[in-house]
């Protein structure tokens, strides 16, 4: 499912980037993909996805 329609970025791609780069913030995630840089409607959904995916990474589970 596309999350960022402006840039054609899917939830799968966002989850992959989070798993690969472990961004600590939305701003960091944006360094790896052009997301939320146009209309901005996807920002909330991307943040939620990012938090959900980080919680599934074992080392982040221990911190949370
Ligand atoms: S939907 Fe992501 S910037 Fe427009």
TrEMBL record:
| Purpose | Required for mobilization of iron from the bacterioferritin (BFR) complex.
Q: What is this protein called?
A: Bacterioferritin-associated ferredoxin
Query: In which family does this protein belong, per the annotation?
Result: Belongs to the Bfd family.
Cofactor(s) the protein requires to work: [2Fe-2S] cluster
Q: Which GO terms describe its molecular function?
A: 2 iron, 2 sulfur cluster binding; metal ion binding
Domain called BFD-like [2Fe-2S]-binding: residue spans: 2-51
Q: Which organism is it from?
A: Yokenella regensburgei
Identify the InterPro entries for this entry: BFD-associated_ferredoxin (IPR052371), BFD-like_2Fe2S-bd_dom (IPR007419), BFD-like_2Fe2S-bd_dom_sf (IPR041854)
């Amino acid at each position: 499912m596309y999350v960022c329609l402006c840039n054609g970025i899917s939830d799968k791609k966002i989850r992959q980037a989070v798993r690969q780069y472990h961004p600590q913030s939305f701003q960091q995630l944006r360094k790896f993909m052009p997301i939320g840089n146009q209309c901005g409607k996807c920002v909330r959904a991307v943040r939620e996805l990012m938090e959900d995916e980080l919680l599934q990474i074992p080392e982040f589970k221990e911190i949370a």
